Amino acid sequence: MASAHISSQATFAGRTSTAALSRRKLLQAAAAAGGGLMLSLHLPATRDAEAAGTDTFTPNAFIRIGGDGQIVLTMPYVEMGQGTYTSIPMLIAEELEVDLQQVRLEHAPPNEKLYANPLLGIQATGNSNAMRGAWKPLREAGATARTMLVAAAAKRWNVDPASCSAQRGEVLHAATGRRIKYGELAADAARMPIPKDVALKAPKDFKLIGTPAKRLDTPAKVNGTAVYGIDVRPPGVKIATLAQSPVFGGRVKSVDDAAAKAIKGVRQIVRLDDAVAVVADHMGAAKKGLEALVIEWDDGPNAKLTTTAIAAELETATLGPGAVAQNIGDAGQALAGAATRIDAIYQLPFLAHATLEPMNCTVHVRKDGCEIWVGSQAIARAQAGAAKILGLPLEKVVAHNHLIGGGFGRRLEEDGVVRAVQIAQQVDGPVKLVWTREEDIQHDMYRPYWFDRISAGLDAKGMPVAWAHRFAGRKASDAYGVSELGYSSHGLKRLLREQGFREIQRFHPVRKRLPSNAPRDVARHLAGPLVQRSLAPFLSQIWLRASAT
Amino acid sequence: MAFTLKVNGSPHSVDVDGDTPLLWVLRDVLGMTGTKFGCGMALCGACTVHVDGAPTRSCVTPVDSIGASEITTIEAIGKTAAGARIQKAWLDREVVQCGYCQSGQIMSATALLASNPRPTDSDIDDAMSGNICRCGTYVRIRDAIKQAANG
Predict the structure, then answer these.
(1) From CA B8, how far away is CA B79, in angstroms rounded?
(2) What is the least distance, in Å, from the CA of A323 to any CA of chain B?
(3) Residue A402: how many CA atoms within 13 Å on its side-chain side?
(4) Are A360 and A333 spatial neighbours (Cβ–Cβ below 8 Å)?
(5) Do A434 and B97 count as a contact with CB atoms less than 8 A apart?
(6) What number is the ipTM of this complex?
């Protein structure tokens, strides 16, 4: 059924080899010397030092063609349902001149230089921008490889490269009817000079891009063979599950684990400052052990913090002074003089991402290094998180990415990896930490609570004249540099004008940064969507009122 | 305690507590990871397998309740006529997104088709309502079941 598949075996072999790692280092060094994020795509450093003596052609970080004809594409963005493991191969295959059925896919290893999203500056899949980021560089990657393969064939035949063409994984020489497969050219192509500039196809010549291709990841997802992070099973792996402090910032005061240890299949209880984990032969025993634990928590400084209190604090904040994002005219006066005034308050609750695949991460801590298996939207960040905890250099942490059963931003965060490493440090051999659904929801990195207070004034004809908006909330993420005022200037101004607010008098939001004891912060539903969720219904209300006038 | 389970036609001996949910025996003891863990409370349907052909939430099915019944999982559902039709329809209709729920969706859909070759929309909704898809592929799931039924 599957003509193309995602390499799951790479999880345990292949990409983890010393050769692969040192090749990566070489590429990384070259990319750094070139000074640009995407330079690795063009650099001669992509010449594979290890492969030079073999028959493998690795023109860049995204393409590997073996002497056996195997074409492997390395995916810089991770697949979590958005189709990137089909669209990205289409970009490369279009210019490489291979069929999608001829390629095998691999998850990219962590490498911020080679695999950074050009639009984000880090190796991350998020913000719905993979195609925009990959559009030119990955077509260039394919075109570069194709140009070198054609050059290798032309040299072998002693003909002008311009008289040759490529299609479906072969180079053709039309004048003589000769043809040769890419695999047979791999060794020679690896010795060809890397072209500085390659010509990209004109859109009218696209064979793949713009066509309704079948998704490459689907076959494995309908027969149970797809490997998500939670499906990893290194030999001898034990299964762990955990209880984290039910109050953010709380600590473990005491643990009675006698009953848990007596359960068949339970191997070990791991105690951390703010969590307890049960390590077992299987998740059934781990969960049963968890239920049998008697844990006493010290709830810490947030013991009395409630959602209600946070909401009240935000509401109060919208009545006080704050940063002004936009102030045109005098909204107060315009509202006072308006024929109709509409006031509304919107509150958005804390929201968990609730990915269907619960948080999980498999870790094997060894004396001299660490290996982690996880489905991550930011695998280099996951690697860095593990390295920091262990006090190891990055290259001592081998991180394997996997298919993701729901991301939504949750898997941009490395907290789950850090947690698994903390536990694995105390376990002999590999351990897979799987969060229960309850833990997954209770310890999400929540979208923050958000409070909007909006007023609009309409004139006698029902046309909008004034807009006043005060809001309070914590920005969705400190990690990504997104401002809660980010929506404030051009976007909203344009939106309001499009909606008819041509006489905007005043726009006056308030921001309030909650104290650090607020439950986490999040990496999803950034400021724009938060505000839009209030704006859309409020604008609808205005128009309903206006049309009734 | 030792149990002998018949999974996808083959006997497997496992030594676990009798109250161990079948899900963990499949995934962690037998290494058959196609069946997924979503909630552990029979609320999401990701863990659906067939026990004597009936769709069953393996996360709340104790291993000692199974006896000599035949267990079928996503790994072998393609060997049944209904399962093969459902899988083909899933591919033809491009149902899948992240795919994590789809093992369970396919097991529920196959059980429906095996017992009801011409399901109505209402039959489909009834049979599939316990299977949550976080990507929201429900419309294509229904189309695919109809294709499998008519094909």
Answers:
(1) 9
(2) 37
(3) 27
(4) no
(5) no
(6) 0.98
What residue has token string 């859309």? A536
A132 alpha-carbon distance from chain centroid: 15
Per-residue pLDDT band for A335 (boundaries 50, 70, 90) equals confident
Chain B residue with the nearest C-alpha to that of A78? B98
**Closest-CA residue to A230 (of B45, B107, B98, B97):** B98
8 Å CB contact of B99 and A403: yes
* Dist. CA A387–CA A370, nearest whole Å: 8
Q: How far is A530 from chain B (nearest CA, A)?
A: 20
**What is the torsion angle, in degrees rounded to the nearest 10, for the CA atoms of residue A486, residue A491, residue A497 and residue A502?**
40
pLDDT tens digits for range A162-183: 999 999 999 999 999 999 999 9
The structure tokens listed for A251 are 């600590």
Dist CA B84 CA B76 (whole Å): 10
List the single best residue of A12, A211, A288, A356 to mutate versus B (max B Cβ within 10 A): A356
Establish, for the pair of chains A and B, how many residue pairs have beta carbons separated by less than 8 Å.
138
Inter-residue contact A19 to A13 (CB < 8 Å): no
Residues of A in contact with B7 (CB under 8 A): none
What pLDDT does A467 receive?
82
Q: Which DSSP category does A11 fall into?
A: G
Compute the distance between CA of residue A371 and CA of residue B36 in angstroms, rounded to an integer.
24
What is A331-391 written as a DSSP string? HHHHHHT-SEEEEEEEEE--B----SS--EEEEEEETTEEEEEE--S-HHHHHHHHHHHHT
Instruction: Please tell me the distance in Å from B94's CA to the nearest CA on chain A.
Output: 7
> Other C-beta atoms within 10 Å of A259: how many?
14
Contacts of B39 in chain A (CB under 8 A): 437
**DSSP calls for A170-203:** EEEETTTTEEEEHHHHHHHHTTSPPPSS-PPPPG
CA distance A59 to chain B (A): 31
CB-nearest partner of A215 from B19, B78, B96: B96
> Is-contact A345 A214, C-beta < 8 A?
no
A222: DSSP letter:
H
**Token reading at A361:** 């991460």
DSSP string spanning A414-466?
Answer: -HHHHHHHHHHTTSSS-EEEE--HHHHHHT--PBPPEEEEEEEEE-TTS-EEE
Q: Which two structure tokens, joined as six digits, stand for A50? A: 């290890």
Confidence (pTM): 0.87
Which residues of A are less than 8 Å from B78 in CB distance?
Answer: 223
Token pair in block for residue A136: 């030119």
pLDDT at position A531: 62
Interchain pair B74, A223: CB under 8 A: yes
Considering chain A, what percentage of its residues have pLDDT values greater than 90?
59
- The C-alpha atoms of residue A522 and residue A532 are separated, in whole angstroms, by 17
Best of B3, B17, B19, B24 to mutate (most A CBs within 10 Å, chain A): B24
Q: Which residue of A has its CA nearest to B93?
A: A214
Q: How confident is the model at residue A6 (pLDDT cuts 50, 70, 90)?
A: low
In chain B, residues 123-142 whose CB comes closer than 8 Å to chain A:
132-135
Residue A412 CA to residue A40 CA, distance in Å, equals 24
Contact B21 A284 (CB under 8 A): yes
Residue bearing the bigger pLDDT, A530 or A298: A298
Instruction: Give the tokens for residue A458.
Output: 């309409």
